[in-house]
Amino acid sequence: METRSSHRWWILVVLCLSSLVLVVDGMALTVAVPQMTRDIGATAQDTQWILDSYVLVFAGLLLTSGSLGDRFGRRKVMIGGLLLFGAASLAAIFVTNPGEMIGVRVAMGVGGALIMPSTLSILIVVFNEEERRKAMAAWTSVAMLGLVGSPVLGGVLIDNFSWHAIFFINIPVVVLAILAGLFLMPESKGPWRRPDLPGAVLSAVGMVALVWWIIGIPQHGVFGGTSLIPLAIAVAALGGFVYWENVTPEPMVPLVLFKHRNFSGGSLSLALVEIANGGLLLVFTQYLQFVLGYSPVQAGLAFVPLAIGALIGNAGGVKAGATIGPRFLVLGGMLVMAASFGLLTMVSASTGFAIPAAGLGLLGLGAGVAMPAAVGALMSTIPPEAAGVGSALNDTIQQAGSAFGIAILGSLLAGGFTSHMPASAPAPARRSITGALTTAHGDAGLVHAAREAYTAAMSTTFTVSAIAIVAAAVLATLVIRNTKPEPAPAAVAEPELVA
Q: Domain for residue 341, yes or no?
């Protein structure tokens, strides 16, 4: 007989709050960077470390934190992550120099790595296969709203207070999530197994080195400069990790999951989607602000069509998924996403906002249909006792895909901008649109050339994004099995969750 928590929909609220704080913090921080770095005296290199330190720690610890949740309790690990994230957010309010801010971001990265796998793994355990589709759609919708709304929130907080408010706003959300988790959420964990210390070390070292190498691609190239060092470390550590996990009797990560077509197809197609989406917000936000002249708040509001489309797609996907299964939802949604990127390639410096709004709305619609279906398909293959590390494995693959996307699309954008700028333009103006606008000094011709060069380079990056989405759609269609959820059993009294 199935046992489910009678508080499961309230538990979903806790999980949404826990993931929301990560999304809001990451996006709102990008709006705060100019004022924050000026106040604490951060150089360009300091700023890069403030942003990258979080990503490095977060990616490196995802697998280990997922394993900890399975072994010691997913609620316990998630609440521990929330406590650390909240404490670090409070400490960020009092930092006075770049070193302190980097330390705070490292602590927040550790907290985030503890939170993220636990939310999805608890969702798997709490909801059965029939309800999981609805829960996944709600969880995705909240994340999308946070993604779109956080730049607006960040702009409002900075305009009315200061960059410190970006971190302070995390604290009440964290407190609410902790209290709700303690009183509403039952504990769940897998059977006891010996700790896999070699696997934990190899995975952490390998992922940190891999993301470090990816982050350095725009500056050093794929194999140039010192980039070969982190690449070699990543290959050696991750290769050793795969070998060790296959020979040790109690592996930290059950790599056998990749033998399930829904897991491998879902996770790898989502990685391609993350590559395509990786640079979208960064690239398009600069277009809105530097080409169309939007303020930070206006730029944030411009993404509202994306959120509306995602909400509609989520609602439609939940209903359709019960009858047609995940394969065709993923295919249809991703083809809509590819079409949206195709539409976005048509924008120019004189286009206005009509075409971008339509493109963003279509992108949200396609993502709202495809993403929950793909995540639901892959998560349905993970046994409850391995829910934490299974969801962490999916998070890790998507994190690597997102980092690749930012690096690849960022490099394409920078190279394309330089190639489209006039050869007679000053060197700083040919490096970036911010450099061009800074050095223009009233030169309308240079400003116009920079805006045209940026939109031309942006079109190239979106073409690559569309190709990646089509590849993801083909992969998902060929690999994912079209399973449908079984009808729910007759209603019975629902005791508290027992793992």
A: yes
